[in-house]
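Appendix B, record 7
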Amino acid sequence: MSSQITRERRGNPRPHIPATGRDIVIIEDDEILGRSAADCVERWGSTAHRLPRPDDDTLRRELQGPVDSIAIVSHDDMVALRYALLAEHLKPGVRLVVTIFDRTVAEEVARTVPNCTVLSMTDAILPSLLASCLAPGYAMLQPVGDELVGVRREGVATHVEYLSRRALAGTPGPHPRSPVGTWFRSLGTSAKALVASLAALLLAYSVDVALGILVLHEHWTEAVWNAARTLTTIGSSHAAEHGPGWYKVFSATSMIGVLVLAAVFTAGVVDRFTGHRMTSILGARSIPRRNHVIVVGLGQVGLRLSARLRDLGVKVVAVERNRQAVCLPLARSLDIPVVIGRGGDRFLLERLSVRRARALAAVSSNNLENIAVAVATRAVAGEQQRIVLRAGGDAVTTESQSLFRIGAVCDFPLIVSTFVAATVLDAELRSVFVADGRTCALFADDRVVDLASWDMTSRPGA
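Structure tokens (predicted):
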């Protein structure tokens, strides 16, 4: 896995099978992830001891007994860092597996604690999300060097394939080029005012030039010069003083209109330069209008998914409802266009050209919100739109899926907890994914294993 940072690990003579008979301590701040990881450890022949947010004394008592490895599962990097350092202090040299999002913090932890393996929960789910967004025929897609490794689904069989990183970016879409009106609707209120006022000023300038040539019989160079003077409120044509009455009325009206339009245009320019805009009118941070991916929820998963799509050459736009979201500055630095608003808003979805989008991925941490976004998208874009949800295998998701064709569901807790449990038991896998209801793993030698075969009751001789 690309985000995995390992300084030292105990070898596993059978990398396709997890170690058994281990005593594993799981420190957690997420009950679902902790319980799922503990279930995997127990099914695969080891013993799991769960510690939900333990204090120092509780952790000290637990680590006095036999402990082979410690897994720290937390959504907060600072919490995970503190527990990792505390565990290393209380039991030096113990095998540690820690979930940390920030790569800088991850590198520092790996450097400071040499017996630690750092995983990113976000990168664990990304291969499944990428496949669902770009190529539903694949169960997972993961960049490896200059290529993409993918697991193609063909019935119950799976096949590993290597693709060019740009192979999926250039896939022709079914939508024709979008008209100028679609581009204008994608702009925000301030940008629309700026573009509209500029267009009106150019129109007024062109009309003034035309009237100078046709009505006042000026040479075209004089007409251009006088129209520019009028537009900038410096002066007007001397020939206009002897023009017909209707021309004077029209000229007076246009000058007043130009004065207003110039004020609007100037305000728009100042706002673009002084405001912290997350989108631009043109350029890298402009909102795409066809064959793009809409990512709703700019948390850790949404930011990393958007960045990975951009790396693959796929156009992307993110939606975030919280103006104070931590990942917004990071998205700005990566030139990812971000629209502030509610992903389930029909008008916002139409502004983002959801009907022309390649896919919509609802990846916020709130499962109900993701379902609401999916249902709204289905209502706006129709049955053919590809929708991807980050969700858990809970009753709400299952019931919603049975009522609505809401899209492909990527089970975040299942994939992440399985990856953590396999890593802490020294199974050197590359990725975990779900294919046709089966939880599978891809290894570095391109072997795909159905993880049901790891259950003790399923193993030969068990």
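Remarks on this record: Residues 170 and 329 are 29 Å apart (CA to CA). The longest strand covers residues 147-154.
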